[in-house]
Every structure is written in C-alpha cells, then in structure tokens.
Amino acid sequence: MAQQASLEVVSRSGTGKGAARTLRREGKVPGVIYGHERAAESVAVDTATLTKMLVGISAATTIVDVSVDGRPPVKALIREIQRDSLRPTNIIHLDLYEVRSDEEITLEVPIRLVGVPDGVRNFGGVLDHVLRDLEIEVLPSNIPEHVDLDVTALAIGHSLFVRDLEVPNARILNDPDTPICTVVAPRAEETPVAVAEEPATAEPELIRKPKAETEEESEPKA
Q: Which of 1, 14, 143, 214 lies 20 to 30 Å (CA to CA) from residue 202?
C-alpha cells in the first residue's frame, strides 16, 4: 500500500530565478502543484519541514496530503525533486502532482530483488540488476512502495523478466520480455603469458650519473 505523508505549503506570486534565490535564502523551497485539470500554482514550502518529511519515505510512491494556504488538503504525488548539483542535500525545487482517489495514475515503482541466487551462492556468479523501476497504472490507494522479485533459484546464465512479476491491483506497462536481472558467469582469471627473455647485453660503464629525468607535473583533477 502507498505510504502517506502531509505537507503545508503557501502560495507565492514571485517567479523566476531571482525570486527563487530569495526564497531559498529565507529557508524555503520554491515549488509548483498541478494536475487533474487544475492550473499550475506556484507555492513555497519550509525547507526544514520538507527535509523532515522526506526522511524514511519513498518519495516517488508516497501520497502526500498537501494543504495550500490552510485550505482543505488535496492528495498529490511528488513528481520531481530538483537538487543542487554541487550540494545534493540542498533541494532547490519541488513538483507536486494532484491525484484523485478514483482515477488511475501512471508511475514508476522500484523493483527489489529478494534472496541470493543459486548461481551466485554456489558457483561464484554475479547478479546483474538491469531493470530497477517498473512502470504501472494503478489507483492511488493501491500504489506499492516497491515490487519484490525472488531471485533465489536463479542459476548462471538465467534471467528473470517483467513477465515474472505480479503487482496486485495494478497493470504493468513495461514489455513483458524486458529482462530484469540475470546471473552472469564469473570472469575467468587470465593466465600470464610467458615471455622469452632476451640475452643480456653488456653496457658500457658510466663515468658519471645521468641527470634524473624530471617528471611532468600533472594538473590536479577538478
């Protein structure tokens, strides 16, 4: 079942980069709420409140009760959280999408692999997780936090596909033949090739030491 959370936001009139920077200096995150035939509404949320709400939930699959300016809350999904590329803990923008309890929505949920494959446990194989998110169509109340897939019996060279998954009360939109994971054989250790040694040749004795070669200084990586 979908997780639940609540969030209070306030409407804002200023838009653009300048207004957004001002909000962030005031400890607020600019955002927008839209969807379900409503006009997009610019909002702002307290940074500390938003950060606290996000702890311990799966943001992509959590239904959020959003109250704008103290009005009765509407249910919404977090469609996007934009973060500072240099400081990923800093949230710079939030997108909220209003949903209705009686209307199906399309979203992606994470696929969680359960167990240790036989090919890994007994034969040293490596589990390759190819598809990590599943696209489904579902009512908001039936959104799963994640979809589990048991990989315990998976042998080397074998794969599991989208068709091997079942999501109650939801319709899977991915191609059934899309691979989710496979167990690949361990890499064979390369045997070093013996190189025939050339006969040593006498070198003339040096009277003085040659000047040491100066190593080129490499520029520090950015």
A: 214
Q: Residue for token digits 């191609």?
A: 175
Best CATH choice for the domain 3-98 from the list 3.40.50.2000, 1.10.10.10, 2.40.240.10, 3.40.50.720: 2.40.240.10
| Token pair in block for residue 141 | 């109340």
Fold of the CATH domain 105-184: RNA Polymerase Alpha Subunit; Chain A, domain 2 (2.170.120)
pTM: 0.73
Cα–Cα distances (Å) from 28 to 18, 82, 94, 102, in that order, read: 14, 14, 11, 33
E runs forming strands in the chain: 3-11, 28-35, 38-46, 62-68, 74-83, 91-98, 105-114, 126-129, 133-138, 147-150, 159-161, 170-172, 179-184
73-93 pLDDT, tens digit each:
999 999 999 998 888 889 999
Q: Could you identify the residue written with the tokens 């950060």?
A: 51
